[in-house]
User: Fold these one by one.
Assistant:
Number 1:
Amino acid sequence: MKDSRAVFSAAQINIMTQTIEAAARPATAAAPAKKPSLVGLTRAAIGDALRAVEVPERDIRMRTGQLWHWIYFHGARDFGRMSSVARPLQTRLADAYTLARPCVAAEQVSSDGTRKWLIRLDPVDARDRGAEIECVYIPESDRGTLCVSSQVGCTLTCSFCHTGTQKLVRNLTAPEIVRQLVVARDMIGDFPGMTPPTNGLLPSGEGVRAVSNIVFMGMGEPLYNVDNVADAIDVLADGEGLSLSRRRITVSTSGVVPEIPPLGGRTGAMLAISLHAVRDELRDTLVPLNKKYPIRDLIDACRNYPGLSNARRVTFEYVMLKGVNDSPAEARELVRLLKGVPAKINLIPFNPWPGAKFECSDWETIEKFSDIVFNAGDASPVRTPRGRDILAACGQLKSETEKVRARARMMGE
Ligand code: SAH
Ligand code: SF4
């Protein structure tokens, strides 16, 4: 069977467990950072930062390479430890910049090792109280997958998705996207010289990296933020730094058809499509963007995605909604629809959230659906719901944290 366990989405992850005490702190607006952090910057932006502290043009390339190695290979937090950088330059850098990461406002750890972090971003201006995004780490025996966000909230309004109900929306910058991986590696002790947490369940196979895969399946629609997503992927995939394979980076879209070819051309990343319905009439209601880019156009764009082969397939995500999209006839139609497209299908059990109008399909229905797809030759694994000991659904870590804060405020803390 094809390898098909690759992707999980934050929306689908349920985690119960310990929430670290930071969550109980009342929300205070962080002061706007005086000095910018160099963490997450592209090579070009690091070059500019060096020019700004008067590093001569002839040295920019070499110095960029040095900083790159310290920041992304070593996970450096202190300019003073950059032994290949001359002391006076260390001082100039420390006077102008930091190596700070955004704050982890809350962490939830599941008994199966899944971790969900609520990351508070640095304010972009004086009025910004610091937006929050979610990031989920899913360790398995032979891989570790990090699910990252591309926006705060989402402008789209898929009717089964909690993120779509959030008001505040902005694009994440490329550094904000990259910092999610840096924070994750900090949290699981995965930079040289760090000790992994004692309760950490991490992938254990020989040569397997703690974070080997990235999926853009957290908050937001990545194809409404392609420039920053592409810049971030350049940093994530740079062989002298974080060194992720582009084939292990998957970008999930609800179907922004015109941006699919540029994504493939610019990033070489894998593509995932949130399909969820096989008829336009139904998909219009589940994924309203379908009215603009209907199923046929979407599948055509997938068929033409660069670099597809049996080994490099498009993932089609299909959330199982009871009595809505889960009939055997729809399973057969799904198989028909994807004929000729190198595809793998992920059936996702719907993850309920307060106020949601849907229920998850029964297990037998999911199995029947899965059998039809599987017998037709497409791998259709049902994503094993991770962290079934669980509380937080899509966006729920955030709402839980807000509840704790509200309680703290009421108690005058
Ligand atoms: N905006 C992008 C990526 C983020 S959503 C997209 O839509 O593809 C990541 C995945 O989680 C998508 O497949 C989305 O449809 C799915 N999802 C959203 N809410 C969900 C829920 N409540 N239960 C299960 N999956 C959900
Ligand atoms: Fe949710 Fe993705 Fe739809 Fe946005 S595009 S509302 S993140 S499923």
Number 2:
Amino acid sequence: MRPISEAYKDFPILKREHNGHRLIYLDSGATAQIPQMVADRVVNHMLYHNGNPHRGSHILAIEASEAYENARERVVEFINAREREEIIFTRNSTESMNLIAYSYGLNNLQAGDKIVITVAEHHANLVTWQFVANKTGATLEYMYLDESGHLKDGEINKIDEYTKIVAFAHVSNVLGMEFPVKELTDKAHSVGAVVVLDGAQSTPHMKVDMQELDCDFFVFSGHKMCASQGIGVLYGKRALLEAMPPFLLGGDMIEYVKEQTTTFNELPYKFEAGTPNADGAVALHAAMDYLDSFGMDAIEAYEEELVAYVLPKLMDIPHVHVIGSTNAKEKHGVIAFTVDDVHPHDVATILDSKGICVRSGHHCAQPLGAFYKVAASTRLSMYLYTRKEDLDAFLDVLKTVRTVMGFED
Ligand code: PMP
């Protein structure tokens, strides 16, 4: 295994300067940066092996098919799925979620049924279910949280015999909180509901194991785990995917097409219409190799160490308030906070003026903001290339924010 302390050297972008300062990237929850070796493997694929996967019998079509299918096999291994038929390539978590909503949700729910989600969901795992509820007559019910981001006692009992879908984030993109997957999944399965787990913020940062998690669907995005943008994954249990109709229609997802009728291809191709993102699949394959060269457990432990380092210092700054849990073990590299009287966009702009990138806004989780009465916040999010000196620089600038804005302290 490689030591994580070396990781930052692999990222050319971290050698950039911005506003006369070393660029410090603390927005990995939005998108992660790309190591040289991932870019090299993509460029090599594009320059020497580019062809249209599954179309044609010449060498380049064959090599592109191999690269694309090898990436699929690598995903099977990385998330410990059972078989390649369970892995569908999409553009991102959002598209994966839409595939589930349109293909499973619209066809399996009806009036009287319930969809249960948490109030902390990213809009990708929320607007989709509002849509399904509106179209089918099902009800959308929320499980609420306490101040520290944990599910309130008894909320799990909203999962009852009427519940058909239970959807929640494995790790919240605002709170950093890992929801109790086993408890929620066991409860959902005990009433015959399917579990949709949003792995966008967990897959890049910890070992995820489909057979252990036992969710029915799982989604994640390559760009949050050192691959390029535009490649994502939907994992689904085979029996469910087999029974679902296609989501997008067109080339490659068919078996036979006659003038009036079509039969559909087998899994996973039934859900992959049109020319796929083979470059993205190659990038994802390389990114999984890259992350595994350090070990996912080591990455998770390193991020916990970073949070344990920065969180108490952050909380010591007057007028700064951390949202959700203040236990370093529960933050998974994500800390959202507010600064009294200063809009998060101003906080982010002041940090940016010193070369530091953080996220500000509602983080695509507006119902959570409304629930906590914090419409917007600033978020720093870390990854394996983050260093303590980056966090020191962040803290130094953050301490000046209120005075820059004209407050006395
Ligand atoms: N779910 C969560 C928890 C996320 O953090 C994100 C990205 N911010 C998404 C879903 C959507 O991911 P994407 O934009 O890659 O589709």
Number 3:
Amino acid sequence: MASDDRNGEQAAGRVFEPSPEFSAAAHIGSMEQYRGLHQRSLEDPEGFWREVSDEFEWSRPWTVLNEWNEPFTKWFVDGELNITVNCLDRHIDAGYGDRIAYHWEGEPGDTRPITYAELLAEVCAFANGLRELGLEKGDRVILYMPMIPELPVAMLACARLGIVHSVIFGGFSADAIRDRVNDAGARAVICTDGSWRRGKVIPLKENVDNALADNACPTVEEVIVFQRCEDEINFEDGRDIWWHDLVAGKPETCDPVMVPAEHPLYVLYTSGTTGKPKGVVHATGGYMVYTALTSKWIFDLKDDDVYWCTADIGWVTGHSYIVYGILANGVTSVMYEGAPDFPDFGRLWEIVDRYDVTVFYTAPTAVRAFIKWGDEWPAKHDLSSLRLLGSVGEPINPEVWLWYHRVIGGERCPIVDTWWQTETGGIMITPFPGAIATKPGSATLPFPGIEPDVVDEQGNSVGANERGLLIVRRPWPGMIRGIYQEGWGQPGHPGEFGERDRFVSTYFEKIAGVYLAGDAVTRDEDGYYWIIGRIDDVLNVSGHRLGTAELESSLVEHPAVAEAAVIGFPDDLTGEAVAAFVTLRGGFAAGDDLQLELRNHIGNQIGRFARPKMLRFTSALPKTRSGKIMRRLLKEIATSGEVTGDTTTLEDIGAIAALRGDDEE
Ligand code: WTA
């Protein structure tokens, strides 16, 4: 069995059935029910999605479920709605205005509960501010903020007006901001003065200033700044405006702008195989329905749950499962601003204990850190409120799964290992916690509406336990609508469908007519999916997607660097780590100083989390006859430790390749 080698000894062959108590109370409580739903969703999509979507408020109900003009899809095609009405007003109208939307906790220890009614009031006041600035439906606005309530407020205020938001993860630096602002043609940037990280202030506003310097982002008219850290910042008159000044005196009601279901809700940039990040476009109606339904069934959300997803809203997990999908269900969440190890390793467990968190969703890289920090930290706190655990972002090692189950879940909580991507909008392959028996390391079975398969390079399905490519055979409501480009959605404009060729070649070309996820996978005899990892030049460092090409182009921008190759290699904590191989321009000498400088260069240009763990100098990069860098060889060098010691110059790398007669095409 192909999955055997990835199963730890303890985990091998173990199957965890949902407990009868959990199943009895769950939305979906048996395998039979799951199978029935999945089958119906494929055989009668109209009926299935009608029932689901009827729970929401549409200003104009849809009559056409979907269109599929391969590779472009539309869902709830002629429907109209506003997503914030469904995430906020609807719950308030139903009498739940006093329910907490977010128990927010700042890193320094400040806390703030915010109810659904308060959230709506803030969203409306801020939306009125945006409107006063002349921002309107279809405009793009960049959000570069830490995990504070004002981030969802800003997102929802945009959505209230049909403005398309694009959140940039607060760990990115100036270059990354500049590229994204310009690609989106953003009219405004919303940021904070800074953010707290392990007791220090990260200067977010300064990063924005650097990104916009020298008129590098000519479309930006305003920068709206929320004061979080009270550090001194540069303030540019005529461009910069304080959040508190903008909302002062603004009414706390604001009529929602109804938009077609296909109106873009947001653009979220993600790394691809070229240097330029892809602006993944998600559309309002399909995304709402898909994230809401997946939230409800996979996290088994009930009125009295306290749900906590530890992701940052700067990534898709936060968009779908901290903001839209969760608010659409009207449940209470926890939102935490800072680092998990500040002031000590018990911070997250103290929060679980304090708020009686019931559902906890995190990434394997975090669980590996918890294991390293030691069992004594969770043991200090009462975690008995937890009833369900989740995992996302990378494959979870079976041994790590078992630890999570035993130490955090007290052996009573099911674990949902959820496979999905920025492009899929929501979870695609996952256990249903009350229905599907889990096997540590497997994301198990597809969500209703999803028809995945495992195929070879020619597109033929492969047999049980054979390694293949993960594909999806038909579109689903949360699916990516395209890669953003100026002119998006304007009929006749060259950018009507975004970067069309890139979209086709990335997802729909290698195997014609089906969505190619870019992951390698096996499927066992029970139909369970076991995700292996990316098949392209995309790295997954601590669950953060990084394109090698993006890192390489940043390196060659440095005056000392002639050529650079970046690869990923396994790391116990971060899953994958970055290794960079660099050749220098004449006149520059390899050495510790330059090595540090180059690592910091990536930190400053792209973000600290992208800094290479290993950086090596070499006189030449190994290449094939056609000039392609032989990444496999570099990977071997980084992995095997064949050449270790951080400062050694790798003089003979080309020679190694020549000796071995390597030539990969
Ligand atoms: C990986 C994050 C194994 C996968 C939501 C995918 C996973 C990429 C899992 C998308 C999982 C995500 N098991 N691998 N449960 N979830 N991945 O766009 O390689 O940041 O293609 O979306 O993460 O990363 P992205």
Number 4:
Amino acid sequence: MKRTVIKGVGRYIPERLVTNEDLTKYMDTSDEWIQQRTGIKQRYWVPEEGNVGASDLGLIASKIALDRAGWVPEDIDMIIFATLSPDIFFPGSGCLLQYKLGLKSTPALDIRQQCTGFFYGLATADAYIKSGMANRILFVGAEVHSTGLDISTRGRDVAVIFGDGAGAICLEGVETDKNEGILSSALHASGKYADKLCLELPASRLNPRIKPEWLVDDCRHFPSMDGQAIFKQALVKLPQVAKETLDKAGLEIGDIDLVIPHQANLRINQAFQRTMNLPDEKIFNNIQKFGNTTAASIPVALDEAIEKNIVNVNNCTILFIGLGAGLTWAGMVYRFLN
Ligand code: UT7
């Protein structure tokens, strides 16, 4: 039976460290508020002068993942690039990355699934691999949030949360009798809540798509979020989707070695931990260091957990869960087995 397995993982976090204290220079906030409400202590942003896009961060993460997989770029049958902060409006960052990897005609698919980009991306890769349409897929989740945040008191509820970064995963189809690789996935969306977390401008539904006064007076080019509404949805939907994903894999929570949740808010993940009755060593969080890196958050966390030997790549069953803009929410069970 064909299974989709991970052959290599890589991450890249830009070097500009921004502590909570640093943010107090720009807005009325405090280290205490940010840590209490989100768990975040710091995040990393791309250089202030700009000229670094999601594909640039993705390129470095990809090279690491390719190296670990023992692949060269020409081995890739397809690129799937997840980001809500593409380098430019179009074409997608996947095309830009493809060129930067020195590839000539490898297909590149961008997906716009925000915090669940990892799930939609890997489920798509799994379907392509199992159908025989591709066998080696490079998935990249990368975000440059910092250039698009309202770093003033007006935008503080959103601005303090987000960090920049990229994660990359090399996925391959293998014929095996073992119950390994992607065991199950569950994807959901509810566009009813689209306005609860969104970035409106530039908008094709408006003509013109952008007007100077909308930038100055209304700031509609910055993300806006009803944090409490998203928070409440997460508390309900994450345990639900965890159960659905486990059921699909024929597993129970006790069969899981580690939960790697999307890193949106430490309190959300702690609430999930309580609901599922998980001991501390069975859930991995790194939002404290990196903030919320959206599509990059899970691949970055997976890479760090492997590096720290928290994930044993010879035998480890992981439950991934996430929820974010869309609204989208999802789960995936993956088993490393050697
Ligand atoms: O990955 C994307 C998905 N997104 C999420 O999962 C986000 C989920 N939601 C959250 O993480 C939380 O709702 C936030 C961290 C965004 C906000 O935390 P909260 O506990 O829901 O705070 P709040 O929005 O209810 O605001 C409480 C107070 C308000 O002041 P008043 O009205 O009580 O006077 C805010 O103006 O905190 C104020 N506030 C801040 N104060 C200091 C909001 N942001 C800040 C800030 N620093 N950065």
